[in-house]
Amino acid sequence: MYPEAAPCLLHNFYVDDLVVSARDVTEAVHLRETTCQLFSEAGMSLRKWRTNSKPFRDTIPEELVEMDDLKFPAAPHSQKALGLHWQVATDSLHVATPNVPEPAPDTTTMRTVASVAAQVFDVLGFFSPYVIRANILMQRLWIAQCQWDDKLPAAIFPVWREWTSQLSFITPHPVHRKYSDSDSPIVISSLQGFSDASKAAYGAAVYLRRVHEDDKITVSLVYGKAKVCPLKTRTIGQLELQAVYLLADLLVYVAKTLSLPLDSAKAWTDSTIVLHWIRRPPCTLKEFEANRLAHIQEALQDCSWRHVVSADNPADQTSRGVSALELLNSDLWWHGPPWLARPEDEWPHLVVGPLPRELPGVRTVTLLRMSSQWCPSHCGLTNPATIGSRGLWPGSGDGSTISGTERLQTRNGLMYLCHARNYQLHTSFCSERLRKIHFRRCSSSLPRRNRYQILTSLGG
Fold first, then answer.
1. In the chain, where does the domain assigned CATH 3.30.420 lie?
2. Which one of 143, 234, 275, 335 counts the least CB within 10 Å of its CB?
3. Each residue of 98-108: b (16+ CB within 10 Å) or e?
């Protein structure tokens, strides 16, 4: 009954606030009328409307408009929206930061660091390369085994003082709500995701690339995220894989939110090891790599993977952390590498080298070769030497596969070796699937089924 209003309310309502945008005034008026009508049928009313469009505001009854817009229509009001501050007049978003006095060595504690860092609510990760430095500092304090009310160590206090001195630069910096300033119709929209990792942190950034009818190409930052590395020692390759795992989740979330297909998205990383892992089945890797790779391949099965040099990777700033001034002046962070604003045929095409002979993270499989000296004929193996040459998995060795009967015979033979050599037990088969073990009571007068106990089931 409400084909436009129902999806709008379903996907854009946050607690008791409706945050939505429209392409033009006509669409905005229709959306407001249908949503208000839908709420009126439920006995509720949508009030306190605020907009950056004066023509649209003139269509709203005065009793439903935010009072500040009525009293001071030309004033630069700031409206809170999901933790961010929306400057209505300039249509820009701002991240609020706390007012921190000049830190003193005698009064600054670990509790102070945690309190100030938690007050920077950057929900979309616009300033994550700067905020991550405080999180890295917090981890250093935990490693140093500092208590909540302990003063900062002498080596850490200067780093904290430098970080807080640039905190006031964040709030005035505007992040334009519109992804593109071009009024030309959009022809193609695609997502470009970048990831990177270091020993200190890892992160990802997602950009929206739009091609307009007038051949203008715009690229804007949509989402950024950075996390500190776990204390457990990991290789750089594993941390890079963790960054790609984070990027996969960000791409899926942004594509769903902006209603964009993932088959046109591209994921970029500067790790050739991760690119080689992505080309392999997860079952061929070790547990850490396999679990994360399976999630990545399932989430981004239609996504295209590319290699990027570290100098052109904006996510490099999330992994090492940068100062606020460096971040605010970084065109690489806000708009991605410069070649994204050019046609795709002008992008750099980096060829990933051949598969290394010893790729890290690959699961190793030991081939077994058995001799008839340790495998009597009654164990069920007609030619035990073939186990080593043909392998224990399909498609190995000479290219042939192992049949079900051969696999069962192989398992029986391995069980015989395990019991006979390691436990010095004498066992025998009572069928293809059951093995019995011989104890001293096998010579007793008990019934046969009690004298010979079943040791294990070898059924597939």
1. 178-346
2. 143
3. eeeeebeeeeb
CA 408 to chain centre: 41
Segment 108-138, tens digit of pLDDT: 999 999 999 999 999 999 999 999 999 999 9
Which residue in 127, 175, 171, 179 sits closest to 21, CA to CA?
A: 179
pLDDT tens track for 364-421: 765 554 444 444 444 444 444 444 434 444 444 444 455 666 666 666 666 655 555 4
pLDDT value at position 223?
Answer: 97
CA distance to 16, 97, 424, per residue, from 454 (Å): 66, 71, 17
Q: How far is CA 271 from the centre of its chain?
A: 16
> CB neighbours of 424 closer than 8 A, spacing ≥ 6?
none
Cα–Cα distance, 337 to 308 (Å, whole number): 10
Amino acid at the residue 79:
Q
Give the global pTM. Answer: 0.78
3-state secondary structure the chain: CCCCHHHHHHHHEECCEECCCCCCHHHHHHHHHHHHHHHHHCCCCCCCECCCCHHHHCCCCHHHECHHHHHCCCCCCEEEECCEEEECCCCEEECCCCCCCCCCCCCCEHHHHHHHHHCCCCCCCCCHHHHHHHHHHHHHHHHCCCCCCCECCCCCHHHHHHHHHCHHHCCCCCEECCCCCCCCCEEEEEEEEEEEECCCEEEEEEEEEEEECCCCEEEEEEEEEEEECCCCCCCHHHHHHHHHHHHHHHHHHHHHHHCCCHHHCEEEECCHHHHHHHCCCHHHECHHHHHHHHHHHHHCCCCEEEECCHHHCCCHHHHHCCCHHHHHCCHHHHHCCHHHHCCHHHCCCCCCCCCCCCCCCECCCCCCCCCCCCCCHHHCCCCCCHHHHHCCCCCCCCCCCCCHHHHHHHHHHHHHHHHHHHCCCCEEECCCCEEEECCHHHHCCCCHHHHCEEEEECCC
88-108, pLDDT tens digit by residue?
888 899 998 999 989 999 999
CB 107 within 8 A of CB 184: no
Task: Mention the CATH class of domain 178-346.
Answer: alpha beta
Q: Are 437 and 453 in contact (CB under 8 A)?
A: yes
Provide the pLDDT for residue 361. Answer: 86
Average confidence (pLDDT) over 305-327: 95
